[in-house]
Backbone:
């Protein structure tokens, strides 16, 4: 309530010479100004810095309420966007587990725990700036959005001050314009307090001009020329007590106001106030003089002690719903929430963090509320580190007829030589020998093949041997049987290699002999009729004798 009361006293609107209406709000130690001129983020920040401030921060809920109250003065129903002093500098990266997501306040203040993101910024390491959206007076949420820094938007500046001076007063006709430290143009104001360094120009109807500056003197903030200004001529105490609140004393053509005991004359020279009993020791923080007594005021997050002098911090963490089920950390005048492991802050609340997005699991990851777990595929088991998967040696528990071969994520059972895997995949079947002496397995090519069958890692499977399958040969009998087959084949090849050439030679010889015999018969008949002489055929004498003997046998 004290903060709201102070805001109601100090809110004002300024109209500059450029025709653009700006709005300003001041608290006891700071002023906030909305600039209704669209510029880029850098230009908005430079303007604030040039005037002695910086783009407004929203480090807690209280600052957000101040900004919301300030934007209500705009009285616009359409959606507007404003730069705030939160920026991701070039070279920095978005940090998903931090409330500010890696962004920094341009004021140089430390990171705060409060945030109100409309949606999480995109994962990037490029320059990004933050804006707030103001949609209507009925909406109390000012959500944050990160985007490019070059787009023109309105802006809000914050200016810190050590103290304030009360507004100047006029006794007659005239007006006062103030040049605040955060403004480049003279501004007309009805503020009741103005920040340190404000320059005032007073113009009266009699063409007189007066100037005054708000300064600090002897730990008191006051004007160099307190006034009052534009005092009319020929003022008499008889007329309306000369304008004095208490006692009017006539001094020639002018009047002088005097206050009763226990009161001091105010800067306007007319009003009286209770004597200021507030010193540096009166209150621990702030002292305000009331109608009858002084009052000590505590800042937000503190409460006045029973001695009405000191202020004690309010432990907001004692409230049951301060941070829901997460950690609450009390701070001086405020508090902050810290999320449990596996959660992250988003819009002031803790939300489950999906660790599987950047998990260390070697195969698959299962996200759970506040945590995660690594999973392995069939045939693998989770190692002790909780991230990697190790192959299961199924051969240590699975029984195969003869041999088991472990593979990556599975295993293989092998059948003995002379057998192959049955189509069912659960037993061994003997190879079949065809009429040519070749061993065949279905349509397989000849040869001795050792069959293996891959196994899944479900229920252990056993290769069973059928009842009618002969007992497998021992290694020695098998070798003897194979050797006998090799010897028989060699003998057969040798016999055929000797007989076939001999038969071919005999066949050729007999053919030649028959042909010659027939030819000789024809020649003999011809010699008998034609009285021709016998002429040697020219063949080898040995062959001729052989042919003659054959001819004699035929006769």
Residues:
């Amino acid at each position: 309530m004290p903060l709201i009361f102070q805001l109601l006293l100090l809110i004002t609107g300024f109209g500059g010479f450029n025709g653009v209406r700006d709005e300003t709000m001041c608290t006891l130690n700071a002023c906030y100004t909305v600039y209704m001129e669209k510029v880029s983020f850098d230009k908005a920040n430079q303007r604030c810095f040039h005037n002695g401030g910086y783009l407004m921060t929203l480090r807690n809920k209280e600052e957000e309420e101040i900004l919301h109250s300030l934007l209500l003065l705009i009285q616009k129903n359409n959606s507007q966007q404003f730069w705030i002093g939160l920026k991701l500098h070039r070279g920095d990266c978005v940090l998903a587990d931090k409330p500010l997501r890696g962004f920094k306040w341009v004021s140089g203040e430390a990171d705060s725990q409060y945030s109100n993101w409309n949606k999480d910024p995109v994962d990037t390491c490029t320059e990004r700036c933050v804006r707030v959206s103001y949609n209507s007076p009925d909406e109390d949420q000012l959500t944050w959005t990160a985007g490019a820094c070059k787009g023109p938007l309105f802006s809000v500046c914050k200016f810190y001050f050590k103290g304030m001076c009360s507004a100047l007063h006029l006794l007659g006709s005239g007006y006062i314009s103030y040049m605040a430290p955060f403004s480049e143009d003279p501004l007309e104001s009805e503020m009741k307090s103005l920040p340190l360094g404000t320059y005032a120009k007073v113009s009266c109807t009699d063409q007189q001009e007066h100037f005054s500056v708000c300064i600090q003197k002897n730990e008191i903030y006051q004007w160099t020329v307190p006034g009052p200004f534009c005092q009319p001529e020929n003022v008499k105490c008889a007329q309306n007590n000369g304008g004095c609140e208490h006692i009017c004393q006539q001094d020639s053509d002018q009047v002088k106001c005097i206050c009763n005991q226990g009161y001091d004359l105010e800067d306007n020279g007319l009003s009286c106030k209770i004597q200021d009993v507030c010193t540096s020791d009166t209150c621990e923080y702030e002292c305000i003089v009331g109608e009858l007594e002084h009052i000590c005021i505590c800042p937000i997050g503190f409460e006045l002690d029973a001695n009405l002098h000191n202020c004690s911090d309010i432990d907001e963490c004692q409230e049951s719903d301060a941070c829901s089920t997460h950690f609450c950390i009390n701070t001086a005048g405020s508090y902050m929430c810290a999320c449990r492991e596996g959660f992250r802050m988003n819009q002031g609340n803790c939300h489950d963090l999906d660790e599987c997005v950047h998990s260390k699991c070697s195969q698959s990851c299962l996200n759970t509320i506040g945590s995660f777990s690594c999973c392995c595929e069939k045939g693998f088991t989770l190692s002790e580190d909780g991230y990697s998967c190790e192959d299961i040696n199924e051969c240590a528990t699975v029984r195969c007829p003869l041999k088991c071969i472990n593979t990556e994520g599975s295993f293989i059972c092998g059948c003995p030589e002379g057998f192959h895997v049955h189509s069912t995949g659960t037993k061994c079947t003997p190879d079949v020998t065809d009429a040519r002496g070749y061993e065949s397995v279905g349509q397989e090519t000849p040869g001795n093949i050792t069959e293996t069958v891959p196994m899944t890692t479900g229920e252990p499977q056993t290769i069973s041997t059928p009842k009618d399958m002969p007992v497998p040969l021992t290694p020695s009998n098998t070798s003897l049987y194979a050797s006998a087959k090799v010897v028989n084949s060699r003998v057969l090849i040798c016999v055929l290699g000797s007989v076939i050439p001999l038969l071919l030679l005999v066949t050729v010889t007999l053919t030649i002999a028959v042909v010659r015999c027939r030819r000789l018969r024809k020649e003999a008949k011809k010699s008998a009729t034609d009285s021709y002489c016998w002429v040697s055929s020219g063949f080898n004498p040995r062959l001729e004798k052989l042919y003659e003997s054959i001819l004699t046998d035929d006769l």
Notes: Residues 13 and 23 are 5 Å apart (CA to CA). The longest helix spans residues 475-530. The mean pLDDT is 75.
